[in-house]
Amino acid sequence: MSELSTLISGDLTQFHFMRPLWLLTLITFGLFYKTLVKQDDLVVQWQSVMSKNMVEHLSLNQAHGRIISPNRLFLVFTILASIIMVGPTWQQQASPFFEDNSELVIALDVSESMNKTDIQPSRLERAKQKINQLIELRGDAKTGLIVYGGSAHVAMPVTKDKELTRYFLDVLDGSLLPDNESKPESVLKPVEKLLSQVKAPSTVLMLTDKTNEAAIDKLTKAFEQQNHQVIVWAIGENASSGGNGEIGLSESQLNTLSLLAKAGHGKMIPFTHDSSDVELVYKQIKNNLFAVNDSALPWLDAGYWLLFLLLPIQLMWFRRGWTLQW
C-alpha cells in the first residue's frame, strides 16, 4: 500500500507515456472490433437477399440490446491492455542498483555562543545529539566532520563508519580552537578539501546559531557553479515562539541564517525538540541528490495497476456459453 500511496502522490504535471508507439495497436484493435460487430450484424449478412425490416422481424439477436456483451468487453479489454503497454507514468523512482556516492560534510560551530543554555543542556550538546540521530538515520552513508569557530579544521575525514563519527563528535568543543569567535566563512577551505574528489551532488550541513554578511557573500560565490548545497541547522530556541526570552534566536537571526543557506542553494532548518527537524534535514539531503540526477532515475510504470481490472474481464471468457454468442 505504501508503494501505491507514493505513486498517487506523484507530480501529475510530468505525466507521459513510456512507450507511446504502442498506442498504434488501438488502430488494429479498432478495425478488428469493427469486423466482429459486422460479423454479428444479421441485417448486414442478409440484406442482399431480403429487406432490413424482414430480417429484424425474423432474427433473434440476444446480444444486440445487452450492455455487457463479448464484443463490448473485448473493446474495453483492448483499450486497457493498450494503456498498460504504453506505460503511463508521472513519477521517478530510485533504482535498486542506484549507488549513493554523495557525501555529507557536517560543519559544527563550537564558538562561545553555542554554550548558551536556552536549550538544555546547551546548544552544542543538543547539536551533537541531533547529528547522532541524523547519522543513525543515514546508515552507512559517507560523512565527514568539520569543527569551526574563528577557524575551521577537518575533525574527521569522510567515512562510512558511524561509530567513528560518534567518537570524534563526542570530543569536540570550543577548547580545541584558539579563537572562539564564530566565522562561518572559514569552513569553505576544509569543505573544498573534503569535496574535491566527489562526483555526486553533496551536502554541507552547518549547525550554528549565527552568521554574518561576509559568510553569506563568500558562500554565494563559492557555490554559484556547484551542484552541492548548504543546509543550515539553526541551533537554539526560537525566541518569538515563546522560548527562553531574549537568550533564544530572534526572528532577525533566523532570517540571516536562512540567507546563509540560500547562498548555498539550500534551506534553513530550525531546531525542534522532537525529531521532526532531523527528518527534514534528512529529506533535504536526499532531495538534492535525486534532483540533480533526474536523468539517471527510472520512471515508475503505473500501467501495471490496470492489470487488476483486466483479470475479471478475462474471467468472463471462462463462462459457459459466453463465446458462442459472438
TrEMBL record:
Keyword presence, Transmembrane: yes
Residues annotated as domain VWFA: 103-285
Superkingdom, taxonomy of origin: Bacteria
Spans traversing the lipid bilayer: 20-37, 73-90, 296-318
PANTHER family xrefs: SPORE GERMINATION PROTEIN (PTHR22550), VWFA DOMAIN-CONTAINING PROTEIN (PTHR22550:SF14)
Cross-referenced InterPro entries: UPF0353/GerABKA_families, VWF_A, vWFA_dom_sf
Source organism: Aliivibrio sifiae
Protein name: Transporter
Keywords, ordered alphabetically: Membrane, Transmembrane, Transmembrane helix
Keyword Transmembrane included in the entry's annotation: yes
SMART domains: VWA
Any Pfam family: VWA_2
Taxonomic path: Bacteria, Pseudomonadati, Pseudomonadota, Gammaproteobacteria, Vibrionales
